Structures are given as C-alpha cells and as structure tokens.
Amino acid sequence: MSNLLSTLLSTAGALDAYTQVLNVTQTNVANANTPGYAKQTQTLQALPFDPSMGSTGGVRAGEVQSSRDRFAEQAVRQQTTLLGQAQQNVNSFTSLQALFDISGGSGIPAALNNLFQSFSAWGQSPNSTVARQTVIQNATAVADAFQQTATGLARMAQDTTQQLQEAVTQINRMAGLVAGYNKQILNGDRSDAGLDAQINSTLEELSQYVNFTATPQSDGSMTVLINGQTPLVIGDQTYDILQQAVPPDPATAAYPGAPPHQSIVAYDGADITSGITSGRLASLLNLTNSVLPNYLGDASHPGDLNDMAKQFADCVNNLLTSGNVSDGPPPVSGVPLFTYDTNNDTNVAMTLSVDPSVTPDQLAAITPGPPEVSNGVPLALSQLSNPHDTTFEINGASYSEFYGSMATRVGNLLNDATNELQVQQSAVAQAQNVRQQLSGVSLDEEAAILLQFQQGYEANSKLITVLEQLSQDTINMMTT
Amino acid sequence: MPAAHAAERLAAVRSEVERACGLLVAPSLETLNLCQNSLQRAASELADCRFDWPQARLDPELLSHARRLRAEVVRAAKLLKNLASFCHGWDRILGALSGGYISGGGPAPVVRQGTVCCQG
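Structure tokens for the assembled complex are given below, as produced in the milestone run.
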C-alpha cells in the first residue's frame, strides 16, 4: 500500500512539473512578439529510482532557463547603434543639402551668375546708370543669398544643438528606466522574464543613441557603460550625462568669435565627447562639430562659406576702389560696394551686404592705367566668372566652382549616408534574425511541446486511473 | 562589349549579389550554401564582363549600374563580415570553455579532430 501511495505522489509530482512546463510554454506563446523577450525553458529533473529504498523515481520541475544569448544581443545593439547613426546622418544631410542649390537656378550660384552678367552689361555701357543700378541690385541679391545660406546653416546648427539636448535627455531617461529595473531585480525579482525583456528592450532602444556596453552582474543587475568606460547605470544608480556648449578660448583660438563647440560631459565633469563614436549622438556631434564648421567656421578656421564671401567681397571692393569714377581733375576714386563684419571672420557671410549709401554714379568704371580704360573695372569684374588670374580665384578655382565643391561635398555626404543606411538596415535585420534563431519564441516548437506534455498528461491520468483501481482492489481485498 | 549588353551583365551580377544579401540576412546552413553559389555565379559573371573602362566611364547608364552593383557588393561584404565576426566570437567562447586561456590571455584555439561525417 505504501508503494502505491508513493507512486501516486510521484505521479502527482509529475503532473505538477508538467503544469509548470505548460505555464512556461503559455508565457512563451503570449510573449512571442514582446520586444526584448527571450524564450524560457522549464528544465525537468529525474528523481532517483530505487524501489528497495522506497525511491519510486519520477520527475520534478527544475529551474527556468532563459535562452537569451548575450553575444547575439550585443551584435543587435552594435548594429542598431550604427543604424541610428546612419538614419541621423541621412536626416541631417538631407536638410543640409536643401541649403545648397546645385542646379544654378537659385541661391548663391544663381545670384553670382546674375551679378557676373550685369558686370558684362556694365562693361558694354560703362556710363549707363541703368547698368550700374542693375549691378547694385544683383550685388544685393548675392549678399542676400550668402546671408540666407549662412542663416540656414546657423539655424541648422541651433536645431542640431536642440536635437543633441533631446538625445541626451532620452539617454538619461532610458538609463533611469534600466536603473529602475535593476532596483526591482535587486529587490528580489531576479527570475522575472518580463523584467528581463523590459531591460533588454530598453537597452536596444538606447543603442540607437549611443555606443555602450551592457554587462550583467552577479547580483542580476545590468551595468551600462558608455564606450565601455563611462558609467551610465550601475546597480540602481544612474550617472547622467550632460550636453555643454564650449565657446572658443579667446587666449588660444584663431577665431574667438566662432560658434561654440558642443561637448558631452560625464557625471564627474569629464569630457567624453571623443568616446561617443556611434549612434545618433555621434552623428549629431559630427554634424555640429565637424560638418557645419566646414561652412560656418570654428575656433581654427573661418569656414568655407565665410571665406568665399570675404574673398569675393574683397575682390569686388578692391577692383572698384582701384578705379576712378571720373578722370577729374582731380580724379574721383570709386567706393567699395560690399560691407561685412570685419571684426569676426566667422560672421562674414551672415553680415555681407551692399553699402546702402552707395549710389550708381559712385561705381568706378575707369582703370587709370596707363593706358586708361573707360570700362576696365567692369571688364575685370566680369572676368571673375571665369578667372584667368589667380588673384581672382579662391583656392585655385572660380567662385562658382568653389561653391560647386561645397555643394558636391554635401551631396557626397548624403549619398554615402544613404548607402550606409541601406547596408545597416540589412545588418540589423541579419543580427535580429540570428538572435531570433537563438532566443526567439518559435510557435511551432511551443506547439510541439504542448503536444508532448498533453500526451504526458494523458499517460499520467491513465496511471492515476490504474493506481486508483489498484488501491480500490487492495482496500476491497483487505475488507473482505 | 556594347554598352547595352554590359549594362545587362552588370544588372545580372547585381541581381545575384542581391540574392546573396537576401540569404545572408536570414542565415542558416542551407541559405549559406545557396549564398555561396550566388556569390560564385556573380563573381564568374563579373569576370566574363570585358569592358573598355575608359569608354564605359563616359556612359552614365553604365556608370549608374556599376555604382549600384558596388553598393550591393558593399552590403554583401558587411553582412558576410558581421556573420564571420559572430561565428568567430562564438569560436572564441567555445575555445575558452573547452581549452581555457593561453598565456597571452586569449582563448585557447578550438581543436577539431575526429570529425564524424554522416552521408546518405
């Protein structure tokens, strides 16, 4: 009778183990599409079988194992970081490209072409007030075009700074979430699959923004280090990062009036900008600290757009002031046409304008020579479109070509970023597929497990029926 | 080779590389074998293309095909590199688990001996 009871107990234990397997299967199926969820497996342990010692064997539920693969998770995060960077690059460079018209139909190239044409027309009629007036109008259009481009770039720099701030806020918010999950784990929810899924889902979201390493600790918490070095989350503590605008140092900067440099600072005040190598944050830092300064300047150079505006304005002004308005006597010199902020070379394009006091009759057309040429100045000015003299060039190119090279650079950046985005989308899909193979829930597998344990249940129920019959027969035998 | 024919050949090569990329995105033993075949076909197809490159560079359509092929090859290279890196990482973990660490601190190389191969 005692063996019958122990067998009954063993069967009941098996039913309990099967229930737990079915619970885990149910959780797997219910969370098949939950972000960050990894398949759980209920392990079963065989019990010793030795009838002489009263051990009737059987099975009991062991620990629930997660199929999460840290290596696959790391690969997904790594590729997601690069995808975030590529997406941000495409967004930023698309906006940047809109500021540089390469068709020649608008913006700086169109304004330059019109001005060059008006110089030619003035050269054909050097005494024409209308031709002079057209020169002033077109010069104003050139100055406006420079101002608009510079303003657009400056607005983009402001937007980028705001996006940087938002990215930093998001990073700190997600760090706070991970710290909160860590706190729950430290408080005892260590084997909660839902919590584990939330942590990994949050880390995957975080990986779009910044490069980091996430290391599970022996206490179950997740430590997050930016660039593998700077703490962001340790246990239930967050170490927020900050964005800072660093203006050029007046003591060392060649251009102290340049826009500030953006940096990311760790909780302890250390500058970690150089450690942020990928993700949206890296893309935004690259845009604001490298790409835009190429045009607007920084502490070490004035920027190509300012350089172009200054050299163009100086070239036109020099030619006009070297000529005469009239022979005299005494001869009357010409006046400069363009003005700009002479105290800040990184602010030239933004402040370029035509001197409002200049009147058409103040534009000098005569080169004093000898020999004196009555339309020498407009002829020289019209040569700026296709210069034969290096003094009329900028970096060995005409002004239109120089502008073209700036626009081409933006186009190339966008083209490279678009290609990189396509590659990264595939790379993320690949990493996610590999992870899915290793730790995703397969509904087919879960269905097979359900069938397997359904049959186990049936076998157990038959065993219980037999045991019940045996017990009844035994009782009957004892009572008769 | 005429430009129109050359463009067709480049498109065919790109199509093979695209197929390989599609297989690499969802890697398994079967798809990796198919991927190898696709890449081999692409390589031999490309080797058969005999272009007069100085002339071909002047043809914008051909140039566009070449650029798209290059982009696809870059994608395939990245996917192959990532997979190789993933497998290499696992190999290192396997080495460390099975053979411990060598004096330099790296994982021991995985020794593969006595491989059994079942056929049929």
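The mean pLDDT of chain A is 90. Chain A has eleven helices and 14 strands. Further analysis is deferred to the final report.
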